[in-house]
TrEMBL record, chain A:
InterPro entries: AAA+_ATPase, ABC_carbohydrate_import_ATPase, ABC_transporter-like_ATP-bd, ABC_transporter-like_CS, P-loop_NTPase. It comes from Plantactinospora alkalitolerans. Pfam families: ABC_tran (PF00005). The lineage of its organism: Bacteria, Bacillati, Actinomycetota, Actinomycetes, Micromonosporales. It comes from the Bacteria. This is Sugar ABC transporter ATP-binding protein. Keywords: ATP-binding, Nucleotide-binding, Repeat, Transport. GO terms for molecular function: ATP binding. SUPFAM superfamilies: P-loop containing nucleoside triphosphate hydrolases (SSF52540). Gene3D superfamilies: P-loop containing nucleotide triphosphate hydrolases. PANTHER family: CARBOHYDRATE TRANSPORT ATP-BINDING PROTEIN MG119-RELATED, GALACTOFURANOSE TRANSPORTER ATP-BINDING PROTEIN YTFR.
From TrEMBL, chain B:
It is found in: Cell membrane. The chain crosses the membrane at residues 12-31, 43-66, 95-116, 123-140, 167-185, 214-235, 255-285, 297-315. This is ABC transporter permease. Keywords: Cell membrane, Membrane, Transmembrane, Transmembrane helix. It holds the Pfam family BPD_transp_2. The keyword Zinc does not apply. It is a multi-pass membrane protein.
Length: 503, 324
């Protein structure tokens, strides 16, 4: 620790925080130098977001001190922190769907002229900001609610940049970005670094952490385990610090020939606004991976099967019977469950308990009385299996960390005991330890006879988990790959450098 | 990102104006068949008078509703304001300005109280403003049996009865206030912040908006609007009227007008132009039914149906939007 770093931009000493008597942070020290990317990693619920909110004025710490550019600070609110030059991109979306991009970006510090909001200036500056991060296709006067998840993330980034922050905090900024957008973000972060801006970066994607950061701090159960120079550590070592145990980096065994059962689901010539001529077959006992770029129609496929945005052409059979699910309810009745990619937006009832949230779908679909006790038992098992960390089942879900909320939603769909399971980015935002638990669970469900369709942008996961992979491009099936395909194969199909793969 | 088409965020014409046109067309036809005349001088004038009173209250109500709050005390504020104004004037033109000033100050004070209860004490707006309303009701019931005070003649002659063609001065006042509020919402930070708070208070807070301050201001402005409506009614009635607000159902009607005008009851979406449309719609229905001499009960049923229909249509729209 004696290297001649420049005077730190941010120094945290002994930060502590409790919620309702539960200690969430305990004596955390951390510092960020100008131009440094300091990554913060840890399991779901380790306290990362809480720490970030303290630095950005969202929460007041119970103990400890914050020093920014040598001056002690006690922020009275986010506004204070912004004034002092601290910007944050929150883990959850912090946008107003009913307002325009520009209105969102400049919320709280709208440019004014003679006391009035200067709309034209606001639009112009937003355009400039978007252009500076390479997003020229995004109009500044579009309503945010009309944008896709990835574009909303771009708006979040622009919003943080608009502050001219000296210290920028990013809490899982890439969780909903496609690869090329992640690239853009990388470029952007480098430029910010060159401008001497300090960056605090929270992510579960270790590859990113290694690509970007200079130092890494590991949090566990609210304490700082260690801070290391990125160059001096390995992913395995990090995981050991985070999880506190050795973790097998292997994926569960694939389905053997005997595991594969009868055909559960077929799609013939399926099409709608976003899909064209999709043919697909899904068997009991197998995990079918679905790859492709953002916007290639992966989620559209799942939504079509689930009846949320049904096929308008072609046919769908489940267990050999033709069916046209017109609503999610119909699909659920037919044994289909869909774990959406936007678990935050579509997922939780904030003020209800963990257990109620997990039981939501089962209660909606099954008759009230029958097997209630058994279902509750099963849900409890599932909550444990996906490693949800909550005080207890009765805790209101809004007090859980982002990753843990997602796990509850996951459990909710699994509780339906579905025969066909559609997963959209099942491990996004979920920590490494729980990730492998979820992989095991998915495989177990398949082995118990479920047919699983899994969409994932995480290529190692897609390749590691799938028995077969279907790659979509522009709403069509670009090709199918067997188990053992490589990342290059998937990417080639996804971007279309190979014409329809011979199979 | 292919194939996503962006509509600019310009708000479409609120459906209320379509409804208004329809109602006027049908109403005109029916009244014509009935042998009457919907748009003669006197009916138009009285329609606009009704609209002016309700409109002033509803425009203020729009502000708090946009911010995710609500004001159920407006009817009592209005009554109180008629009394304060009329009693202070006591028939003297010389006391006109101080009386108006006092009436508005008292109203603003009530708004401030509402705002502080809602923000600082975190009392649900429904309960807080209802409570404040009942407090005022107690005061009014206790102190007054009937009309009191006397409005200055000059005010009666101007705000009360003066017209520009068929348009009463009071309606001009409504147009001016509406314009000012519209401008405030679209061109000031306060307006932007208010809508943001209504959309999601946590997002606003984390973006550096001082939620409490903004909401308190909105409540004060809302009460000021109700106070202004009170001064107008005092000019119509010639005296202070302790029960004019509640008898005119200004609280519920103002909320109805806001909702019919396309503002989301939960806040964050809508605007004041739609509200005025809603007000004129309600007033037109009144005018048409008065012409047709429909009984009061049936009139209420139709109004209720219209309110429910409006909410249902907006809800469907919101659903469709979320779906696409
Ligand atoms: N407002 C709150 N009230 C009560 N408990 C809270 C509150 N906010 C967070 N917690 C608890 O604090 C702990 C840390 O949460 P935090 O959101 O900081 O975790 P995290 O490290 O960001 O996790 P993730 O990777 O899932 O985002 C969790 O156990 C959570 O339940
Ligand atoms: Mg978090």
């Amino acid at each position: 620790m004696s290297d001649p770093r420049p005077a730190p931009l941010l120094v945290l000493r002994g930060i502590g925080k409790s919620f309702l008597g539960v200690r969430v942070l305990d004596g955390v020290d951390l510092d960020v130098a100008p131009g440094e990317v300091h990554a913060v990693v840890g399991e779901n619920g380790a306290g990362k977001s809480t720490l970030m909110k303290i630095v950005s004025g969202g929460y007041a710490p119970d103990e400890g001190s914050i020093e920014l550019a040598g001056e002690p600070r006690a922020f009275r609110g986010p506004r204070d922190a912004q004034r002092a030059g601290v910007g944050i991109i929150h883990q959850e979306f912090n946008l107003l769907p009913e307002r325009t991009v520009a209105e969102n970006v400049y919320l709280g510090h709208e440019p004014v002229r003679r006391g009035l909001v200067d709309r034209r200036e606001m639009l112009r500056r937003t355009d400039d900001l978007l252009a500076s991060i390479g997003e020229t296709a995004l109009p500044a006067d579009a309503r945010v609610g009309r944008l896709g998840v990835a574009q909303q993330q771009v708006v979040e980034i622009a919003k943080a940049l608009a502050l001219d922050a000296r210290l920028l905090i990013m809490d899982e900024p890439t969780a909903s970005l496609a690869d090329h957008e992640v690239e853009l973000l990388y470029g952007l972060m480098r430029r910010l670094q060159e401008r001497g801006i300090g960056l605090l970066y929270v992510s579960h994607r270790l590859a990113e952490v290694f690509d970007l950061s200079g130092r890494i701090t590991v949090l566990k159960d609210g304490r700082r385990v260690t801070t290391v120079d990125t160059a001096d550590t390995t992913a395995d070592e990090l995981v050991r610090h985070m999880v506190g145990r050795e973790l097998s980096s292997y994926y569960p065994d694939r389905a053997g020939p005997d595991d594969r059962g009868p055909v559960r689901l077929t799609v013939r010539g399926g099409g709608n606004k976003k899909l064209r001529g999709v043919d697909l077959e899904l068997r009991a006992g197998e995990v079918l991976g679905v790859g492709g770029l953002q916007g290639a129609g992966r989620s559209a496929l799942a939504r079509a099967i689930f009846g949320a945005a049904p096929f308008t052409t072609g046919e769908l059979t489940i267990d050999g019977t033709p069916i046209r699910p017109r609503s999610p309810r119909a699909a659920m009745r037919a044994g289909v469950a869909y774990v959406t990619e936007d678990r935050k937006g579509e997922g939780i009832v904030a003020r209800q308990s963990v257990l109620d949230n997990a039981l939501l779908a089962s209660r909606a679909v099954f008759a009230a009385r029958s097997g209630r006790a058994a279902r509750t038992v099963r849900v409890r098992e599932l909550l444990a299996a996906v490693e949800v960390r909550a005080v207890d089942d009765d805790q209101e879900i809004r007090f859980l960390s982002g990753g843990n909320q997602q796990k509850v939603v996951l459990a909710r769909w699994l509780a339906l005991n579905p025969r066909i399971l559609l997963f959209d980015e099942p491990t996004r935002g979920i920590d490494v330890g729980a990730k492998s638990a979820i992989h095991d669970l998915v495989r177990r469900l398949a082995r118990e006879g479920a047919a699983v369709l899994m969409i994932s942008s995480d290529l190692p996961e897609l390749l590691g988990m799938s028995d077969r992979i279907v790659v979509l491009r522009d709403g069509r099936v670009a090709g199918e790959l067997p188990a053992g395909a490589t990342e290059e194969d998937v990417v080639a199909l996804a971007v279309g450098t190979v014409r329809e793969a011979a199979q | 990102m292919s194939g996503i088409s962006f509509l600019p965020a310009r708000r479409p014409v609120p459906g209320v104006f379509v409804a208004l046109t329809l109602v006027l067309a049908i109403g005109w036809l029916v009244v014509e068949i009935d042998g009457g005349q919907l748009f003669n001088q006197s009916t138009t004038v009285s329609l606009l008078h009704v609209a002016a009173g309700l409109g002033l209250v509803a425009v203020g109500q729009t502000l708090v509703i946009l911010g995710g709050s609500l004001d159920l005390s407006v009817a009592y504020v209005l009554s109180l304001s008629t009394l304060v104004a009329a009693e202070t004037m006591n028939g003297r033109d010389g006391a006109l300005l101080p009386a108006i000033g006092l009436a508005l100050t008292v109203s603003a004070g009530v708004g401030l109280l509402n705002g502080l209860l809602v923000t600082k004490l975190r009392i649900n707006a429904f309960i807080a403003t209802l409570g404040v309303g009942l407090l005022l009701k107690g005061y009014l019931d206790n102190g007054y049996d009937g009309p009191a005070g006397s409005t200055a003649p000059s005010l009666v002659q101007t705000l009360g009865y003066q017209r520009v063609g068929p348009v009463p001065l009071s309606f001009v006042l409504l147009v001016v206030v509406t314009g000012a509020v519209w401008f405030t919402l679209s061109r000031t930070r306060f307006g932007h912040h208010l809508v943001a708070i209504g959309g999601d208070p946590e997002v606003a807070r984390l973006s550096g908006v001082r939620n409490d301050r903004v909401l308190v201001t909105a409540h004060v402005l809302c009460a000021l609007c109700a106070g202004l409506a009170g001064i107008y009614l005092a000019s119509r009635l010639g005296s202070g009227a302790p029960r004019v607000g509640t008898e005119g159902l200004y609280d519920l009607e103002s909320i109805a007008a806001v909702v019919i005008g396309g503002t989301a009851l939960a806040g964050g979406r809508g605007g004041v132009i739609g509200t005025v449309g809603g007000v004129v719609l309600l007033a037109s229905i009144d005018a048409i039914f008065n012409q047709l001499e429909v009984d009061a009960f049936f009139k209420q049923v139709i109004r209720g149906a219209i309110i429910i229909a409006a909410v249902a249509i907006y809800a469907r729209r919101a659903l469709r939007k979320a779906d696409s």
